[in-house]
Amino acid sequence: MRPNSLQLHLLQSRHAAYLSAVLLAGCALGPKGTAPAMPQPAHYAVDATPALAGSDGAVQHFALGARAVPQWWRAYGSDTLNAWVEEGLRQNYSLAQATHNLAAARGQLRAQVGESMLPSLDAGAQTSRQRALGIPELGPQTNLYNVFGGQLNASYTFDLFGAARFANSALAAQVDAQSYQLDAVRRALAANLVTAAINAAALKAQVDATERLVVLADIDTGEMQRRYQLGAASNDDVLSAQANADALRATVPALLTQWQAMRHALAVLMGRTPDAAPPDLDLAALSLPDPVPVAVPSDLLKQRPDILAADAALKAAAAQVAVATANLFPSLSITGSFGQAGFTFPSAVGAAGAIWSMGASLSQPLFHGGALLAKRRAAQDAYQASLSNYQQTVLSAFQNVADSLTALTHDADTQAAAASARNHSAQAWHDTERRAAAGSVAPSAVRAGEKQYQNARLSEIRAVSARLTDTAALFQAMGIVPGGRANGMGDLASSAVGTARNASQ
After folding, report:
1. Quick one: pLDDT at residue 481?
2. How confident is the model at residue 24, as a pLDDT?
3. From CA 49, how far away is CA 431, in angstroms rounded?
4. Which burial class, exposed, middle or buried, applies to 123 when counting CB atoms under 10 A from its CB (0-12, 13-18, 19+)?
């Protein structure tokens, strides 16, 4: 149903009153987009961060307030690992895709700034031969004639209330957010490369230990079968030994699958095909990074890419509110053209062929069915959503660091216990070997001691692997970006005049 004149008058009056209220409010077209103050925890986890974790040669210190170096993987002390990570950062296709997407976004921003903040100037030329109907009383019934023409067209829209400037600021903030997302991709890639290399080495060590356990179990089965033939063992003893060997053998294929899958994943992360996966690292040759820097919460807000991206998204949402508000106000544009035209080429380029036009237009939205106000309310709600997203991102970052610190603390205890069990089982095994050499115990006791040692070694391998990978997770949680940040456009749209000048070059 179309509004009557009275309803339209009321809507126009309401719209004008709203615009006047905005003007009287100091021309605050939108929120500033400043990130809200967040609570600063005294320490990340429920328990205070310890100064060190572990003991007996596996101590790891936590340097609270220290800033990690970008190439943190070098703390593992492996030249091979360093080369793999650097190769991945150079050749990974997902990282290359994100880099090109950021470059494209920067180009789009430069184009929008130049298009919105500078006048547009276009040149055109045309020539044609036409046949038109004439007036019989004044001449021939048809006319044949040529038209030659050329002109320059210029136009410019004055950004009276900052609609274009705020739109450029919104896009610039979105480009900043995308640059921080690229930082997050680079950060995650480095951590994934380190984690994949460690896990592949650990799985290979587990495969070797498990295969040795299978060999020992097969020897026990063979010995039990010989004892059964001599009447010194029952058939149940043989079946039990065989079942134990088969159970161990059944675990090998799954380990092999995980190991090969991890090698394939490492190769792809490095930009290689799976068949070109590098050989495994020696897990024992990797050093435990020490000390491990732990940024204070206030510094974490300034260096984690996900928090910085959420902050940039908040600024973009604030600028969108200002755009939606500025669209309620008048818009002023001017246009002009100058050229030459004529029915012959000499007349077209002569003084008599000069043509020109100038004009200006002023438009003020009056009635759009409430669409403009609805868009502004939608932009305000989107801003509140971005505000909540920033707050949740910060809390999730704190949780990420807290979980990593807690895991490392417990990993130290687990590794210490596993190392002690492996050491004691090794001593017991070697003591049994010496007793067997003296003839005081049967060879089966030696195999039992070795099996106990191999099982303890499996536990230690898992503990060492977990501690090394959790250290990489903590480095990632600190937000340090390898190779430096992929800086966004910064204040490109804020200094629109200077930037538009650069964009026009």
Report:
1. 79
2. 38
3. 41
4. exposed
